[in-house]
Amino acid sequence: EAAASRPSHVAFVSEQTGKDAQWQLSLHAALDHAIAHDQIYLEYQPQRDLATWEIIGAEALVRWRHPERGEISPAEFIPQVEKAGRLLPLTAHILRSAARAIGSHPAPDRRIAVNISASLISKPDFVEFVCSSVADGGAPFSAITLEITETTRIPDVAAAATNLSKLRERGFAVSLDDFGTGEANLSLLVDLPCDELKIDRSFVRLAQDNDRARMIIAAVAQTASHSNLRLVAEGIETTAELEILRSLGCSIGQGYLLGRPKEFGAMQEQFASGKSLYRN
Ligand code: C2E
Ligand code: MG
Ligand code: MG
Ligand code: MG
Predict the structure, then answer these.
(1) Ligand 1 neighbourhood includes 200 CB (under 6 angstroms)
(2) Of 42, 43, 61, which is best to mutate to test ligand 1, by the most ligand atoms within 8 angstroms of its C-beta?
(3) What is the DSSP string of 57-75?
(4) Would you say the CB of residue 175 lies under 6 angstroms from ligand 1?
(5) Is the pLDDT assigned to residue 152 strictly greater than 90?
(6) Taking each helix axis from N to C terminus, what angle separates 20-36 and 87-104, rounded to the nearest 10 degrees?
């Protein structure tokens, strides 16, 4: 690459050993550059009906393919982007990209789930932010599920609840991610309006050998069914896990056994065919 075409954050990218401070300092410029050059993109992991195996939705997972650092995991860079105060523009880009993917390949009754950090959802302009990002991408609001991830505590739960119910009125679905871990606890389920719960993969893993984990999953499945919530088990890797989750009353699954995250085109045809996810 010619020196003249190098972006201004070259000092950061040359520091392979990953000094956190340096990464932070130039993250702002690096992120803008990466978005502009398609180094930040989405992969989609299918969600299947555990009875019929049909693809009934997908979760969008952000990827950063850095020219010098290689693939950086979202678990690593999302918290840093958050600390650097750049989560809103990144999330806008992610919402637009997901909306563009499903908007250009409409699949009635199927949704793309987009991860939204809990720190954003109580902001006063969150509703307009989400609506305009998705409209920019060209998808109907009813094509998107907002998957609330637990990285941080929600700053203002009452404001978050108001925002989420406005978004549901406009057609979005709301899912509580990583249910059973970290900040994603029972009180959130009481306080936040939602359409779906995702059982964290740590529970899926435990279900095999642990009686209490199984009882908790069964209780959550009952609660979900009584409250008209969809229940998704994430991180299913083995047929044994699949069978246990099924027997405990979980009807939707996601995980390497059901499909790895991949580019939208690789899943699009199956995604567009078959029966509806939303039967209620
Ligand atoms: P998550 O939302 O719970 O996403 C599921 C993670 O589990 C993904 O990792 C996925 O690739 C991985 N996974 C799926 N199936 C299996 C399986 O069978 N076994 C195992 N061991 N792992 C499986 P990924 O893509 O590295 O994402 C990690 C986390 O980063 C996500 O957890 C989410 O909290 C966050 N994240 C990802 N994309 C976004 C995004 O666009 N925005 C925000 N705010 N956070 C994101
Ligand atoms: Mg998620
Ligand atoms: Mg999850
Ligand atoms: Mg998780």
Answers:
(1) no
(2) 61
(3) EEEEEEEEEETTTEEE-HH
(4) no
(5) no
(6) 30
Q: Please say whether the beta carbons of 133 and 141 come within 8 A.
A: no
Closest ligand 1 atom to the C-alpha of 61?
Answer: 38
Q: What is the pLDDT of residues 233-253, one digit of tens each?
A: 999 999 999 999 999 999 999
**CA distance linking residue 110 with residue 142, whole number of Å:** 9
- Beta carbons of 268 and 50 less than 8 angstroms apart: no
Q: Binning pLDDT at 50, 70 and 90, where does residue 190 land? A: confident
- Round to whole Å and give the CA distance between 175 and 4: 46
Which of the ligands is closest to the CA of residue 46?
Answer: 1
Residue 129 has pLDDT above 80, yes or no: yes
pTM for the model stands at 0.90
Determine whether the shortest distance from the Cβ of 178 to ligand 1 is under 6 A. yes
- Checking ipTM against 0.95, whether it exceeds it is yes
Ligand 1 within 6 A of CB of 251: no
